[in-house]
Amino acid sequence: MEVRTTQDSILKAFGLLLQAQSKPRQVKQKYVYRPFGSAVHASRRLTKAEGAAIDALVGKLETLDPRDDANNSEIERLLKDLSKLPVKFVPLKLEQRIDRSKSYPYRSTKRGG
């Protein structure tokens, strides 16, 4: 049996502390983010006429179905008209919570638990 001195124990503790610092704690993500289209924001303060024009174009865009191929040319024309105005397109993300809840611990999953 080997006898350890205080200095050996301090060096061992210091080594363990350095190990813990080198690999940070893993934090589980609570949410997952998915792309969810884009929003139209004004790039500066708008006049009433500019605001009305933007609202009219956005209203027309909302009525069109993007999945219908017959609307593609109309959508492109509206977006081109919209890009001439002082607006910027801001990407949106959909936040979905990751469910980590557990089932009831005393119930068998074979019996619907």
Task: Explain the overall architecture.
By secondary structure, the protein is α+β, with helices and mostly antiparallel strands. It has a domain at 31-97. Helices cover 40% and strands 20% of the residues. The chain contains three helices and two strands; from the N terminus they run αβααβ. The protein has helices at residues 6-22, 48-63, 72-83; strands spanning 31-42, 87-97. The protein has a two-stranded antiparallel sheet with strand order 1-2. Helix 2 (48-63) runs antiparallel to helix 3 (72-83). The longest helix has 17 residues, at 6-22. It is elongated, with a radius of gyration of 29 Å. The mean pLDDT is 86.
Rounded to an integer, what's the Rg over CA atoms?
29 Å
Major sheet: arrangement of strands? 1-2
Sheet bearing the most strands, described? 2 strands, antiparallel
Q: Which band does the percent of strand residues land in?
A: 15-25%
Order of helices and strands: HEHHE
Q: Helicity, in percent?
A: 25-40%
Cα separation of the termini: 53 Å
Give the beta-strand count.
2
Mean of pLDDT: 86
Q: SS-based structural class?
A: alpha+beta
Oligomer: single chain
What is the 3D shape? Answer: elongated
Low-confidence stretches: none
Count of alpha and pi helical runs: 3
